[in-house]
Every structure is written in C-alpha cells, then in structure tokens.
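Subgroup meeting minutes
Present: P.N., E.W., G.H.
Scribe: E.W.

1. P.N. recapped why we're keeping a running log of single-chain structure predictions: easier to compare across weeks, and new members can see raw inputs and outputs side by side.
2. G.H. added today's entry (190 aa).
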Amino acid sequence: METNPTVAQMTDEELVQNIVKGNNILLFEEIYDRYSKAIYNKCRSFSKSNVEAEDLTQDVFLLLFVKLGSFKGRSKFSSWVYSFTYNFCVNYVNRNKARKISDKSDPISNTSEKVSNDVDDDSLFEMRFVKFKKALQLISPEDKTILLLKYQDNVSIKELTILMKVSESAVKMRLKRAKTRILEIYNKLP
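Output recorded in log:
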C-alpha cells in the first residue's frame, strides 16, 4: 500500500473534495485519524459505557462517509463534523425509548430563586465540574447539543446559524433557554 505523503498536509476541505470525487476510503482514513478521538468523546457524553460510545463512533463514521458529499463548506469542516455527531447522538437517544432522557425539573414557571432570567456566561463557568456534568446529563439532548457546541467546541453564533438552519436571534434564544434550564437543574442538585 503506497501512501501519498501530501495526504497529511491536505486541509480537511481538500480531503473531503478528493474523497467525494473518488469515493476514496484510503483518504477517508485520514479524516478518521483526525477526528476519531473527538467524535468518540462526543459520543461518550451521550452514552452509558465505553463500548456503546465506540459503537456510536463507528456508526457516526459510517454515516459520515455516506453523507460526506452533503458538506457544502459554509462552515468549518470540524464544526460540521461535530454538529453531525451531535445530531446523530441526539437522534440515537430520542430513538431509544428506554434511554430517553426525561426532564426531572419543575416547569420554568416554578424556577428556584437562585435562577435569574438573564444567565450570564460567567455563571455557567463558576459551577463545580462534577455537579455541572450531572446537570448536563439531565437536560434535553437538544439543549446539551447547543451548549456543548458553543462552549466546549467554541462554535461561533454565525456558524451555529448555518449548522442549525435558524436565524441568529433564534440561536441566541435557544442558548439563553438552554443556559437557564441547566442552571435551574444545577441549582436543584445536592
């Protein structure tokens, strides 16, 4: 097997173009090498075990290979891959009725006094990590997705509008609501 020494130097976008043009699995291995750890970590946050996360990771890559041609280059490839992974995991959680995440919090109208209507970013980062991680598991997959894309993967508001196919104001409102929900749940945890 002869490898092209320039493959490692190709940008993600160049790789995608060449993979789509030639359906080249060998080039796709480079995408796998670049993103397997990150995709596994994303899948792990939606799964209950390492084995399940590994299965989800393989499923994501299989579907990613099939759907690679739908990448249009309107956002960074890495953002597209992370969004693709999140959407896949959200769909997985929603499909699996036994694992469906339930919202165990009270309706927003009965929120604790600790939660303000205007949640600033600093409040999110002040939370203790373990308690925050537990709260993150209790919110809806959709809320979890937007929070992780924004704050873990540093996806910009502009890129989120493209990935989510909604307006900038809709992205900001969804972020605000997700932050309010996670803070509400966080404040109720022991």
